[in-house]
Amino acid sequence: MGDERYRCKHLVLVASPFQGHMTPMLQLGSVLHAKGFSITIVHTKLNSPDPSNHPEFEFLPLFDNFVAIDASTNFTKFVEVLNENCKLQLQQRIQEANHKKITIIYDNTMYSGEEVARNLNVPSIVLRSCSASYMPAFLALPKLHSEGQLPIQDSMLQKLLIPDLYPLRYKDLPFNNTSTQEITEMLALTNPIRNPSAIIWNTMEFLENSALTKLQQYYKIPIFAIGPLNETARCPTTSFLNEDTSCISWLDKQAPRSVVYVSLGSLATMDKKELTEAAWGLANSKQPFLWVVRPGSVNGSEWIEFLPDGFAEEVEGRGLVLKWVPQKQVLAHFAVGGFWSHCGWNSSLESISQGVPMICWPFLGDQYVNSRYLTYVWLVGLELEHLERRVIATAIRRLMVDDEGKEMRKRANDMKEKAKNSLCNGGSSFNSLNNLVEFILADYN
Length: 445
Ligand code: UDP
What we know:
The structure is a single chain. This protein is an alpha/beta fold. The protein folds into two domains: 4-237 and 423-443, Glycogen Phosphorylase B (Rossmann fold, 3-Layer(aba) Sandwich), CATH 3.40.50; 245-421, Rossmann fold (3-Layer(aba) Sandwich), CATH 3.40.50. Helices cover 43% and strands 14% of the residues. It contains 17 helices and 13 strands. The chain has a seven-stranded parallel beta sheet with strand order 3-2-1-4-5-6-7, with helices on both faces. β8, α10 and β9 form a beta-alpha-beta unit. α2 (75-97) packs parallel to α3 (112-120), α10 packs across α15 and α15 packs across α16. Residues 18-20, 23, 239, 263, 265-267, 292, 324-325, 327-328, 344-347, 350 line the site of uridine-5'-diphosphate. Uridine-5'-diphosphate is lined by residues 18-20, 23, 239, 263, 265-267, 292, 324-325, 327-328, 344-347, 350.
């Protein structure tokens, strides 16, 4: 149990409407509540968390004026307008709540949290929910643009290693086709991380030690690597979409480590041709599969209207297609032996935490860097070169059946153990969390 003396110490967590950001923020809230702090979650009306899942928190909504985030949204513009729309209300809500002593912990996309903290003369800390290894690539973008290496003009360059950014290739860079002007705008918003007093990173030292060291030198403020939050937080669902739990009884009937779980997270989309190739790749692999196709994620359709004729008959009894599932539970299930993923950082951490090896098919942002580390450095994943049925079926067999996959599973299990150890008494994340608590309390004295 936490220390009850801290209950008067109030933490205001400013959450972001992206699923991959909301989840670690709520998990952080649970972890810090368990340490004894009182927690307020300030969140947008768009993609609100469900307060009934977290009766221990206070929730304060902000009217953001958005109705949805879709794949065509210009990320930079969206985040900018979101912050403009929310900043004043954020300050007002916090003032109205009238808690005596607070620290603001804000998601990096809700950077107005830092300005509000300054206005209110209270400390602020930023939560980063991407991989630490992503940041050196992100920070290198201005130089690569000024040298004319970006945006990528020549597709032959894609597979080459980038000088000074080993092991990354040009194809692993985030936004490698984005114009110099858009990159400049994005960096002006997000880099440097304004002026918080510390950074909380959802990662582990054993996994990203070298990147964390570089970031420590770059930011020159304390960095607390306290992940994986998915393992420490005692939180019920954090999903915006309803989780279809029928998959668990279906998994119960499958052989151990036989099922490939497929999910591309909350933002990635496909077109009809890609869906067709994915479907036949799964069918031809002859492995059982659980495939999450998010409603609206196939361009031009509501759900799975574009699945090819004959697919349902071909995979009957062996394949299950659902809209959204309790992913943590799925990855922890004995029947799941592999994860075909877009390599979002939460999904990557959840897979590592369960010792499940991956097939990596990144779509955007840090996912390319994550994929490179999973497949080339940590050796717990296979890179999917093309979204083509034969390539997919072969990758699934390599991961699920071949000796190569067995080796990956062993390494993934080693990582699972290391992740557990880092959270145990004396482990790096355990210590880092205690240091974070001390750091926050020091500001109250
Ligand atoms: N997720 C889930 N059910 C699903 C698919 C995804 O609960 O059917 C969760 C997953 O466990 C992860 C989050 O959605 O915590 C996705 O975050 P991630 O960082 O992996 O990717 P993003 O959605 O930000 O691209």
